[in-house]
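Translate sequence into structure tokens.
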Amino acid sequence: MTKTISENGFKYFSVGSGKPIVILHGLMGGLSNFDGVFNYFPDQGYNVIAPELPIYSSNILNTNVKFFAEFVYKFIKFKKLKDVIILGNSLGGHVGLIFSKLYPKLVKGLVLTGSSGLYENSMGDSYPKREDYEYIKERTEAVFFSPKIATKKIIDEIYETVNDRKKLIKILAMAKSAIRHNMSKDLPNIKVNTAIVWGTNDSVTPPDVAKDFNKLLPNSELFWIKKCGHAPMMEHPSEFNTIMKGWLERKKF
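Result follows.
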């Protein structure tokens, strides 16, 4: 992955040139979770660009999904992007949905994977036993079908984050905002072409959530990845890329 670029108050990664794919990461997931996308799509004629969402730097009053959608709008306008393809995982998918609702003319296509917005299981309202490393390890491994995906580096980062009081307050505020901002009534009005790519073993946003998204989003297609948890682009990057590329080609994006 390329190094972080800092411009105009934004921090982001950008690889390749061509049609823009804007990545929106999850609440506990860094941009490295999308390494497979960064490594593949620039060679297919896309500019893969990913802003860091201001989860820990925004004012607590602005730590909510709508503010983050507005943040993405400001970023896209700053970069002068148009006809963007938004790829969002977990919280990032939720932010992408709100963005698509508010600014449909800027969005060419939307790819959701393990997205919040309807229903999700969290690690708990207050992260009980957050000082217990083994507890955090077990909860992190449970996000994936294969526990091996949860490397020590990933577990250490999450352990450090949830034991940082200031960061934890922001995480809990963001999680509560996502729960409050249920989009079931909004989805039928979001006409953007959408690919829903889901793990059959997702325990955070279970398969029924994907089916509901597919039912409620009028121009959506649902794709399953077997033996896969909450982060398909991370757990099965090749299969995820193949599905996404095939969908983009069929839609002539």
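Note: Strands lie at 5-7, 10-15, 19-24, 46-51, 84-89, 107-113, 194-199, 220-225.
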